[in-house]
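Assess the record.
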Amino acid sequence: MNRPLVAGLVLLGVAAVGVVLGLVLVAPTGGSPATSSPPASPPRPSAPAAPDEADTAAVAVLARAIVDAITRHDSAAFGKLTCHPQSAEALAGLQRTWDAAGPVTAKLTGPPELRGESATAKVHVEAAGGTKDTPFPLHKESGRWCVPG
């Protein structure tokens, strides 16, 4: 695969993972202090709640928009998908990387995996230099699904 494309995808993945890890490490646990007496009965595993239809649809639209931005080499469109505004320098760097990669095709490897207010969209990219599968972490922030980072 073309080195600039791989480098760009790796940088996006690393930035997104860093933001997700930061949120996980900083987020409050919400648990209560431990008590000295054991619980009356062992906790029962609960079935995970089914994803909300609106969230499922929003995540699918976001995942498709990621694929479209990569395929069109449209860093400005990708920048609109992020949770926080990206600097002009960051978007210009991404655009240079995508321009250097040449023509690419991108597609989702399957439907996005939704877990509460987090999701993952796995994107398969093919270029003259090879292929790469990249998991894009997604997050719901202020009622909007976006790419962290």
Remarks:
- The beta strands are 104-108, 113-115, 118-127, 130-141, 144-146.
- Confidence is low (pLDDT under 50) at residues 4-38.
- The radius of gyration is 19 Å.
